[in-house]
Automatic annotation (TrEMBL):
A Pfam family matched in the record: Peptidase_M24
Family: Belongs to the peptidase M24B family.
Source organism per UniProt: Crotophaga sulcirostris (Groove-billed ani)
Protein name, per record: XPP2 aminopeptidase
Domain Peptidase M24: 11-150
Length: 220
């Protein structure tokens, strides 16, 4: 059959180079759930703007993921936490901060999410958290994780998020000087979780190259 307009071809494709930023939006349907994970990478030397923008997108992802909030809070009430680090320097993104994710159902599943017309967040809901930044004609950034709404360890029953996506972020693009001690502690704890849960599975499958990559990518 003829190639679709989205299929790569020798005439329209170009080779990847180490001099650019790449955004990979991935996901799959499994019998026990649905994944939707976006990572942005740069294999060379990123520009100062690329590095700062990426770091601020990551800061927003972390700030919302760590947020503790009252029960029955609407997502639209708290989504600005994902934008604050970008707003601090006059940057923003023009899409929603996250959407509900079905369990082997729709990847974008109503009515959960961070828009003004979504239902209040309740323990047990799955949502994406996906701030980004886009520089027209040059590069795009998005960092998307799947998060479960859970009860927080507070005196009164408040809520928070547990990120269930287990994929490292690109160390090459993180400007550590911008991160707060709390954000660095979050990253280290997240990387420990990735190592503990994914590492043994890679070893079980004898994926040694992948295991070594995981260890490098999750160093404190």
């Amino acid at each position: 059959p003829p190639l679709s307009p989205c299929s790569p071809s020798n005439g329209s494709s170009r080779k990847l180079s180490v001099d650019e930023m790449y955004l990979s939006d991935t996901g799959g349907q499994y019998l026990d759930g649905t994944t939707d994970i976006t990572r942005t990478v740069h294999w060379g030397v990123p520009t100062p703007l690329q590095k700062e923008a990426y770091t601020r997108v990551l800061m927003g992802n972390i700030d919302l993921s760590c947020l503790i909030f009252p029960p029955n809070t609407a997502g639209g009430t708290v989504e600005s936490f994902a934008r604050r680090a970008l707003w601090d320097v006059g940057l923003n993104y023009g899409h929603g901060t996250g959407h509900g994710i079905g369990n082997f159902l729709s990847v974008h599943e109503w009515p959960v999410g961070f828009q003004s017309n979504n239902v209040p967040l309740t323990a047990g809901m799955f949502t994406s958290i996906e701030p980004g930044y886009y520089h027209d004609g040059e590069f795009g950034i998005r960092i998307e994780d799947v998060a479960l709404v859970v009860e927080a360890q507070t005196k009164k029953p408040f809520l928070t998020f547990e990120v269930v996506s287990l994929v490292p972020y690109d160390r090459n693009l993180i400007d550590l000087s911008l991160l707060s001690p709390k954000q660095i502690r979050y990253l280290n704890a997240y990387y420990e979780t990735i190592r503990a849960r994914v590492g043994p599975e890679l070893q079980r499958q004898q994926l040694e190259e992948e295991y070594r990559w995981l260890q490098r990518s999750t160093e404190p």
